[in-house]
C-alpha cells in the first residue's frame, strides 16, 4: 500500500462499513483509536444524515477514518417480477402487521448530494460499493485530499477500479457477509464468486494498486494469511458486528453464535441483490423466489424487517454475516483490534520460523 495511505492507520486492520445502523460513530472511533481504520456507512442515509455522523465521529476521535458510499444502480429490474414478489410477501405483511414498502423509493441513494458533502467537507478516505465511480469523481476527491477505495469481486472489476484512478481496491471474497459488491448484478451471479485467497492472488496479478482483503476474516492469523498472499491490509465486518459499540440489533449479535443458525447463504430475499446472511425462516421461504431487483426489493421489505426486529423475531430479520460468524467475539471494539494485532504478530512470528520447532 502507498506509504501515505498506510500512514493513516498503524495496523493493517480496517473495520468494514456496514449499512443499516451497524457502523455507528462510536464503533468507528473505537477502531481508529486502537490503530485501525474505522468506517462510517453512508448507505441508506440522507446526505445530511451522513454529514451529522461525520461530525459526531470527528468529536470522538482525531484520527483518520473512512466513509462508504453506494453507487447508483441501473434500471434493470422487471416490474412484473417485483409485483409477483410483493404478492408473495403479503402473508409476511399480515403476520407482522406492517405495510410493504414502496419499491420505487429511489435508486441513487442520494449519491450526488453525498459527493457534494464529501467534497465540501473532506474526509481522509472514501470507499465505493456496487461499482466504480467515474474518473472525474475520483479526481475531485483526490483534489480535496481524500484517498479513494473501491470494492471488486473479480479481476476484471479490479481493473475497472484501477482505470478509475482509485488508490486501492477492496478485494471482496465470496465468504463476506452482507452485500456482494459486484459491479454488475445479474441473475447469473447467484451463488458464484471467488474465495478470498484466490481472489487476492488473481487481483495481485491483474492490477498494480494496493489490495485490501475482505471476506470471512475473524482472526489475526487470517489477516497474516491475506497479507502473505499480497494484500496490504484486511477489512473485517462480521468480527466487529458483535462488538459492544456496534449498532447492530441485539438479536443480530446473538444470532452470530446461536446454535440455531448453523450456516450462511447468499440470498436476494431481503434486498434483491446477492447478500450473505444467516439462514433463517424468511431466507428459506422467500430466497428461491426473490428477483434480481435492487434496490426495489430492499425498499419493499424494509418495513417487514423493521417490524420483525421490533417484534423480537430474528426469523424475519436480515441477519447479515460472513462465513466465519461462529468465531465472533463479544468484546469492546478497541480491545478486539488489540487482540487481532496480537494474533497477527504471533502468526507472523510463526510464519517466519520463530514459532514451532
TrEMBL record:
<keyword id="KW-0216">Detoxification</keyword>
<dbReference type="InterPro" id="IPR004136">
    <property type="entry name" value="NMO"/>
</dbReference>
<dbReference type="InterPro" id="IPR013785">
    <property type="entry name" value="Aldolase_TIM"/>
</dbReference>
<dbReference type="Pfam" id="PF03060">
    <property type="entry name" value="NMO"/>
</dbReference>
<keyword id="KW-0560">Oxidoreductase</keyword>
<keyword id="KW-0288">FMN</keyword>
<comment type="similarity">
    <text>Belongs to the nitronate monooxygenase family. NMO class I subfamily.</text>
</comment>
<protein>
    <recommendedName>
        <fullName>Propionate 3-nitronate monooxygenase</fullName>
    </recommendedName>
</protein>
<keyword id="KW-0503">Monooxygenase</keyword>
<keyword id="KW-0285">Flavoprotein</keyword>
